[in-house]
Every structure is written in structure tokens, then in C-alpha cells.
Design a protein that fits this description.
Elements lengths: L12 H4 L7 H19 L4 H6 L1 H4 L3 H20 L6 H13 L3 H13 L6 H13 L3 H13 L6 H13 L3 H9 L10 H13 L3 H13 L6 H13 L3 H12 L7 H13 L3 H13 L6 H13 L3 H13 L6 H13 L3 H13 L6 H13 L3 H13 L6 H13 L3 H13 L6 H13 L3 H13 L6 H13 L3 H13 L6 H13 L3 H13 L6 H13 L3 H13 L6 H13 L3 H13 L6 H13 L3 H13 L6 H13 L3 H13 L5 H13 L3 H13 L6 H14 L2 H13 L6 H13 L3 H13 L6 H7 L4
Helix pairs in contact: 2-5, 6-7, 6-8, 7-8, 8-9, 8-10, 9-10, 10-11, 10-12, 11-12, 12-13, 12-14, 13-14, 14-15, 14-16, 16-17, 16-18, 18-19, 18-20, 19-20, 20-21, 20-22, 21-22, 22-23, 22-24, 23-24, 24-25, 24-26, 26-27, 26-28, 27-28, 28-29, 28-30, 29-30, 30-31, 30-32, 32-33, 32-34, 34-35, 34-36, ...
Protein name: Pentatricopeptide repeat-containing protein At5g59900 isoform X3
InterPro entries: PPR_rpt, TPR-like_helical_dom_sf
Organism: Nicotiana tabacum
């Protein structure tokens, strides 16, 4: 039994006969015109040709409509008069109606044709199924399909593809999949159209993995998916977060000559770069050009940005130059990436050159462009250059944003210019640019660092009032600031208050408190804090343990050191090279080299490789203990490990030789250091000290001249050591002469230098000169020490 295909509204001529909007005077001319056109269309070999003819496509819409109505009348009247049209005429008319989306009429004419016993073919069935699917009457469509199958009609895959396409497009793709799976029982094989319809349907309902599986199935059958299908699956997988699967699919379909469109390629490249799949992104970019797909400005921008973020500036610049060579449109985006990349690499001058090149090419920099440069210069501590760019930017009418101000405020804080930082913050607020958490954190840290904790806490209150949420970075800065001022107990109260208010504090906040305790020698309080951390589930990290080790070593508490090391071991943590170096230094200073060597062996056995600092610490302590042979052994081992000794390493031996009076050997070593560009003011001072101990004052004075000739400037210590020797001998004339030489060379005497010359004046009876020096010392802003008064007033 044939299913009824009639819609709720029965067919009648007035449904599709439309009134032609013409004036009465022109109506007769219009009808004549339509009749003439109709005759022309009838003369065509088929209705399809008539619809596609140049005549009909150039007519007004209502003219075409009238011609179609005349033609439809022929078939409709023929059937209403019980005359049977041939099947070719019927299928042509039905498919023509589909072209103009008159689906109801298709169903009406089909019902009439069946009633009259018109011979039906696959084209007629196709038209009817298309109409039902377009009307989203899928149940009737499936009934229709069952009816056709039950009539024993020989059907091809085309008819099933129509139904599969309709269901897939209408969101009922799983029903379509079932039909596809049943094709084998009907002796049919799914073709490219079948698969493409299903895959697009699966993508429509976000079933991208199933879509990819069908693509795999297609390729296994030797079928090649269309570009639009591949693009949909690739983009869906990408948006679903499976960039690797998307990349592999592209790799697979490329082998059969199919490529996604450029939009999808660009999107996939961008996602691969964001996900850190950089090798895949580079490979995909290279294959694009090999396959003849020309990268556009977006493609190049994505790759340039990826290279810049990874610090690969040379490949980024090569791509930029290729853009120019290939005459690809240049936009602000690749320039912003290049500028930001160079700034992050510490190459702000090169970044500014790129900015000028960008302007020369007629592109207008954005706030992002300038902010990258401002931030870069601030991190290089070139805050004045950053401030110049800020004025250049605002002068061009480009408004700074929160990130611009924050970068510049951070730069001022790093440069100890807190007044300028505060002023810029006020300017930011006046310009209605809203500070964020980072802005406040930067200012709070700056004020804490330079001792103004009161202002830091004011900013904290202001931050909360504005609805911003302080974080562990905020709290750590405040805790550190209080501890730095010796207000550790207040810092502990602050921590307790925060915890009562359920604010989260991490190990960095507690490490700041631990450092405060250790600095004051309150190791018991520090260890109590670690217990508190454990109770709250906050794990001690290497930084926290490093602070504790620093405290125990500073206060020579080896008992606590052993306890801390055991606790670290129990928690599976191992000291790093910094901790081991600190312990080695402490043992060395206690002259407990047995424990130092044992600690060294443990360090090496744990796989912690000693560095140049570690070796130098050992050599320094061994030299100071007079164990120079053992120090030399460490020096040779250092060389064998491929480590190059620096000026500090050699200074250890130099200090030993000069201290023991081996001045010939000391000078030979120093000359070698001078040739290797390792000599400096400190190393010269070691030689000067050694000469002064041996009363070789003239040789020491000669070294001051040698220093200047070698481009090394003597400092206050260099002069003070020789001045002291003159004073000790009672040679005030020689001492004052050297003092004047020091002042002439632009050096400002420190407290020690003043005290030495005052001492010299006092022992030679020049008390008025001594008091003059004391007054001069006070005027210079130096504090008069106990040593000063001890010289001026004996017995104090």
C-alpha cells in the first residue's frame, strides 16, 4: 500500500498562481509578453533546458513564475483529465519544481500520477524523497522508501543517498548510519556521496571522532572524500581539542590528493602552535606550499608568532622576509609578534628598529606594539627609554591600557623610582584605566622592597575595596616586607589573620616567614611553622628547606641541620647544588673538613654535580685553613671536569699567597690573571694588602699607578690600606698626600677611611685636624662611629 504523501493543506491552483503586480493599462501588454515567452520556453527540448536558458535567467522573478505555471498547467490538466503523461515528462516537471522549492506541489502531482497508474522511475522517486526530506517529514520519507522497495523496483545507491543526505542534514544522522549499514543486504555499496553525507551529518552533531572513523573507512575502500568533508572533520577535531588526530588526518588525506581549505589549515596551525605541537605545525606549514596551497597573511602571522614565542627569532625573520618576497599582504600582527619576540629575548633595540620599519611601510602601531617595547625596556632596566616610548605613544593618540601602565610601573619599581611609580599609578586612575591585580601586586612588592610597608597595606585595602582579589603573590610580598624590617612577629600575626579568614597561602608565603625567623635566629619558631604547614597540607618544597638550611648554617646549629636533612630525605627531597654549597661552606668555616669531604661525597653520589661556585667555596676554605695542597687537588679536579676557574677561584690562592708573605708567587699569579682579563680592583687590593703587611709601601703605591694604566680604578679600600700604613708609621704627611690624591681621583672616603686618617692625626698630635675631619665626615652624611670617638677621646 502506497503511503499518503498529501500534506495538511490540499493542492489547489491558487496556492501557486500569484497575482502579477501590474497596472490595468499595462496588464494586456504584460500578458502578451508572458505568452510570447512561454512559447519560446516550450520550444526548448526539455523543461530543464528551459529553466537554464539565458532567456529565463534574465527575466524578472514574476515572469519566470508565470512561465512555469503555464508549463505546470499542461501536466496538471493532463492528469486531471485522466490523460497519462509519459514518465520522462513527469520526472522533468517534478525535478523542475524542486529547483524552485515547490515541494508540496511535487507531492500532489506524485499522488495524482500514482492514482492514474503512471509508470514511475527512479528520478520520480528521487524528486519525491528530496521533497519529503526538505520538508523534514522523515517518517513519510522512510515509509516512501519502504513502499518503493516492496514494489520490487530495481533501485540504485542514488535513491538511498537522497534519504541518507536528508536525514544527516536534518540532525538524524544515526538513522542515516543504520541505512548505510543495511546497504550490503540490498546488494548495494556505499559510494562517495553516501560517506560524505554521513560525515557532514556527524560533524553537524559534533561527532567528529565518528566522522574521522568514516573517513578512515572511505580511504580503506579506495574512496576519496571531498575537500569540504575533510575540512569539516579536521576543524571539528581541532575545536574539540584533538589537534594530533586532526594533524594525522590531514597527513593521511594528503596522500590521496585531498587538502582542507586554507581557513581550516590556518586554524589547525594555530591550534597546534598553542598546544605546543610545534614540530607538527612546522611540518604542516611546509607541506602546504609543497602541495600548492599558498599561505596567506594569517598563515605567516601564526607561524611567525609561534617562532617568536619559542625564541626562534631567525626563522621568524626568514618567514617575514619570505612574506615580502611573495608579496603577501603585511599587517600589524606579524610585526607585533616580531617586536614582542625580540623584547622577550632582551633585544629591545632591534625591536624598536622593527617598529620604525613597520611605520615606514605605512602600518599604524597599536597599543600592543608599544606595550611590548615598554615592557621589554623596563625588564632591561632601561626605564627612561620605556617612558620615552610611552610619551611617543600617547602623543600619537594611542591610549595606554592596563598592561602598558603595569609594565611601566613595574619598571619604575625595579629602578627604585617609587615616587615615579606612584605618580604613574595616579595618572592611570585619572585616565579611567582600571588597575588589575598585577598592577597592585607590582606596587605592593615595590613598596615592601623599599621599606614602605604602611603604603603597601593601604594599597591592599584599596585593592579589596575595588573588588579585586589578592593572591599568594600579594601576601608573600607583604610578609617579606614585614620580615625585612624585623617585624617578624607582626608577619606571623598577619599570616594567622589570613588563615582565620580562609585565605589560601602557599609554600612561598610560608618560606618568606621562615626566612624572617631564620634571619633573627628563631629556629624553633621556624620549625614550628613547618609543623603548621604540614597540618594544613602545605608541602615544604626545596625553597622552604633551603631557607631552613640557611638559618641553621648562619647560626651554627648543626643539630637542626641534621634534623632538616633527615626530614628532606624522608619526604623524598634531595638538596640541590645551592644547598650543598652552603653546607660545604659552613663546614669549611668551622674547619670541619672531615664532614665537608663527607658532604661532598654524598653530593656526588646523589647525582648533584658540583659547579664552579661549589669548587671555589671548597678551595677558599682550604686555602684559609692553610691546606693549600688539598685546595690545589680540588683545582685540578675542577679543570678535569671542564670547569673554567674564574677570578674568585684564583683570588683564593692569591689571598693565601699574599697572606703568607709569598709576594713573588702572588705577583706571578696576579700577572697571569691580568693577562687572562681576570684581574680587578679586588685582586689588586689583595696584593696591596700583602705588600703593606711587609712594609713595602712604595711598591703598594706603585700598584695604584699600575692599576690606572691597566684600566682598573682603585677604590676607597685601595687607598685606605696604604693610608693606614702611613698613619701607623706616624707619617701624617704621606697619609694626607694620598688622601688628597684619592679626592682628586673623584673617590668619596667612607667611614673607615675617615677613621684611619683621624687616628693618624690623633697619634701625631694634630687634634684640630682630627676634629675638622670629624666635622667634614658629618657633613658628608656619614655616621660617626665608636671607632671615631675612640681615636678622638682615648678611653671611650
Amino acid at each position: 500500500m502506497k503511503p499518503s504523501l498529501r500534506r495538511s493543506r490540499p493542492f489547489s491552483g491558487h496556492i501557486f498562481r500569484r497575482t502579477i503586480s501590474t497596472s490595468p493599462n499595462n496588464q494586456e501588454n504584460e500578458q502578451n509578453f508572458i505568452s510570447t515567452l512561454n512559447e519560446i520556453v516550450r520550444s526548448k527540448r526539455s523543461w530543464k533546458i528551459a529553466l537554464n536558458s539565458n532567456i529565463s535567467t534574465k527575466l524578472k522573478p514574476h515572469h519566470v513564475e508565470q512561465i512555469l505555471l503555464f508549463t505546470l498547467d499542461d501536466s496538471r490538466l493532463m492528469m486531471e483529465n485522466s490523460l497519462v503523461p509519459e514518465v520522462r515528462t513527469l520526472s522533468t516537471v517534478l525535478n523542475g519544481l524542486i529547483r524552485i522549492r515547490w515541494f508540496d506541489l511535487v507531492l500532489h502531482l506524485f499522488d495524482k500520477a500514482v492514482t492514474l497508474g503512471v509508470e514511475l522511475d527512479e528520478y520520480v522517486y528521487t524528486a519525491v524523497l528530496k521533497s519529503l526530506c526538505e520538508l523534514k517529514d522523515f517518517e513519510k520519507a522512510k515509509e516512501m522508501m519502504n513502499w518503493v522497495e516492496s514494489n520490487g523496483s530495481k533501485l540504485s545507491i542514488i535513491l538511498y543517498n537522497v534519504l541518507i543526505h536528508g536525514l544527516s542534514k536534518g540532525g538524524r544522522v544515526w538513522e542515516a548510519v543504520e541505512i548505510k549499514n543495511s546497504l550490503g543486504c540490498k546488494g548495494l555499496n556505499a559510494d562517495v556521496v553516501t560517506y560524505c553525507s554521513l560525515i557532514l551529518g556527524l560533524c553537524k552533531v559534533s561527532e567528529f571522532q565518528h566522522g574521522r572513523s568514516l573517513v578512515d573507512e572511505m580511504l580503506g575502500l579506495g574512496l576519496v572524500p571531498r575537500e569540504a568533508v575533510v575540512s569539516s572533520v579536521v576543524d571539528g577535531l581541532r575545536r574539540g581539542g584533538d589537534c594530533v588526530a586532526a594533524y594525522r588526518l590531514v597527513d593521511m588525506v594528503e596522500k590521496v590528493g585531498v587538502m582542507p581549505n586554507l581557513f581550516v589549515y590556518n586554524a589547525l596551525l594555530n591550534s597546534l602552535c598553542k598546544d605546543g605541537k610545534l614540530d607538527e605545525a612546522e611540518s604542516l606549514f611546509g607541506r602546504m606550499e609543497d602541495k600548492g596551497l599558498c599561505p596567506n597573511s594569517i598563515t605567516y602571522s601564526i607561524m611567525i608568532d609561534s617562532f617568536c614565542k619559542r625564541g626562534k627569532l631567525d626563522p621568524a625573520l626568514l618567514l617575514y622576509n619570505r612574506m615580502i618576497d611573495n608579496e603577501v599582504e603585511l599587517t600589524v600582527y606579524p610585526y607585533n609578534s616580531l617586536i614582542n619576540g625580540h623584547c622577550k629575548a632582551g633585544k629591545c633595540s632591534a625591536a624598536e628598529f622593527i617598529l620604525n620599519e613597520m611605520i615606514d611601510k605605512g602600518l599604524i602601531p597599536t597599543v600592543v606594539t608599544y606595550t611590548s617595547l615598554i615592557d621589554g625596556y623596563c625588564k632591561e632596566r632601561e626605564v627612561l627609554k620605556a617612558f620615552r616610548l610611552y610619551h611617543e605613544m600617547t602623543g600619537k593618540g594611542i591610549s595606554p591600557n592596563t598592561f602598558t601602565f603595569t609594565a611601566l610601573i613595574s619598571g619604575f619599581c625595579r629602578a627604585s623610582m617609587m615616587a615615579e611609580a606612584s605618580k604613574l599609578f595616579d595618572e592611570m586612575v585619572k585616565m579611567n584605566v582600571t588597575p588589575n591585580e598585577v598592577t597592585y601586586n607590582v606596587l605592593i612588592e615595590g613598596h615592601c622592597k623599599y621599606g614602605n610597608t604602611a603604603r603597601a597595606f593601604e594599597l591592599l585595602d584599596e585593592m579589596v575595596e575595588k573588588g579585586l582579589v589578592p593572591d599568594t603573590y600579594t601576601y608573600r610580598s607583604l610578609i617579606t616586607g614585614l620580615c625585612a624590617k624585623g617585624r617578624v612577629s607582626e608577619a606571623k600575626e598577619f599570616v594567622d589573620d589570613l588563615q582565620k579568614q580562609s585565605h589560601y597561602l602557599n609554600e612561598m608565603c610560608f618560606s618568606a616567614l621562615l626566612h624572617g625567623y631564620c634571619k633573627e635566629g628563631r629556629l624553633k619558631d621556624a620549625l614550628n611553622t613547618t609543623d603548621e604547614m604540614a597540618e594544613k597540607g602545605i608541602n615544604m618544597d626545596l625553597v622552604c628547606y633551603g631557607v631552613l638550611i640557611y638559618g641553621t648554617l648562619k647560626h651554627h646549629d648543626m643539630k637542626y641541620l641534621v634534623k632538616i636533612l633527615k626530614e628532606m630525605h624522608d619526604r623524598g627531597l634531595k638538596p640541590d647544588e645551592v644547598m650543598y654549597t652552603s653546607m660545604l661552606d659552613a663546614y669549611g668555616k668551622f674547619r670541619d673538613f672531615k664532614k665537608a669531604f663527607r658532604c661532598w661525597d654524598i653530593m656526588v653520589s646523589e647525582g648533584c654535580i658540583p659547579n664552579i661556585v661549589t669548587y671555589t667555596v671548597m678551595i677558599n676554605n682550604l686555602c684559609k685553613a692553610g691546606l693549600v695542597d688539598k685546595a690545589e687537588s680540588f683545582y685540578k679536579e675542577m679543570l678535569a671536569q671542564g670547569l673554567i676557574p674564574n677570578q674568585f677561584t684564583y683570588s683564593c690562592f692569591l689571598d693565601y699567597l699574599a697572606g703568607e708573605g709569598y709576594m713573588v708567587e702572588a705577583k706571578q699569579l696576579h700577572d697571569a690573571m691580568l693577562k687572562a682579563y681576570l684581574a680587578n680592583t679586588v685582586t689588586y687590593n689583595i696584593i696591596i694588602r700583602g705588600l703593606c703587611r711587609l712594609d713595602q709601601i712604595q711598591e703598594a703605591i706603585d700598584l695604584l699607578l699600575e692599576m690606572k694604566n691597566n684600566g682598573i680604578s682603585p677604590d676607597c679600600i685601595s687607598y685606605s690600606m696604604i693610608i693606614y700604613e702611613f698613619c701607623r708609621r706616624g707619617d701624617l704627611s704621606g697619609a694626607t698626600g694620598l688622601w688628597e690624591s684619592m679626592l682628586t681621583n673623584g673617590l668619596k672616603p667612607d667611614t673607615v677611611a675617615y677613621n684611619l686618617l683621624i687616628y693618624g692625626c690623633c697619634i701625631t698630635g694634630e687634634m684640630s685636624k682630627a676634629f675638622e675631619l670629624r666635622d667634614e665626615m658629618i657633613r658628608s652624611g656619614l655616621k660617626v662611629s665608636h671607632a671615631t670617638y675612640a681615636s678622638l677621646v682615648p678611653g671611650t
